[in-house]
Amino acid sequence: MVSLTEVLSLLLVALLWGATNPFLKKGAEGIEDVRGGRMVFQLIAEVKFLFINIRYLVPFLLNQSGSLVYYLTLATTDLSLAVPVTNSLTFLFTLLAGKLLGEEVDGKGALLGMFLTMLGVTLCVTSSIRESDTAG
């Protein structure tokens, strides 16, 4: 049976992955202006730019902590539930965080996408609960 802890862990992962995406995008602004000469020096200059940029580093670390929670959650959660729930909700949280940051979002299409995403996640969770109830 799917526990509340597992569902909350998957929601946390989706939130950490999704909400940090727009912040990573904003934090990486200006990287196109970084010049380092040859290809290797260019790469080093870009990595240095990102890792001394606190506007990029904090969302990056939060995003990576989501990956750690996901890894730990996979040890106890059914893979057929964990993957669709986290991936679809990540999209939803990215959309919401982008909207909060002032990004352009198609109104009706975004609302329809959010509704369908939530419907799909609900179906995944309820089917997982039913399967574990009939097995037990």
UniProtKB/TrEMBL annotation:
SUPFAM superfamilies: Multidrug resistance efflux transporter EmrE. One of its GO terms (biological process) is glomerular filtration. The keyword Signal applies. InterPro entries: EmrE-like, TMEM234. The chain crosses the membrane at residues 40-58, 70-97, 109-129. The keyword Transmembrane applies. Coiled coil: none annotated. GO terms for cellular component: membrane. It comes from the Eukaryota. Its main location: membrane. It is a multi-pass membrane protein. It is found in: Membrane. Keywords: Membrane, Signal, Transmembrane, Transmembrane helix. Residues 1-18 form the signal peptide. It holds the Pfam family TMEM234. Belongs to the TMEM234 family. This is Transmembrane protein 234. It comes from Paramormyrops kingsleyae.
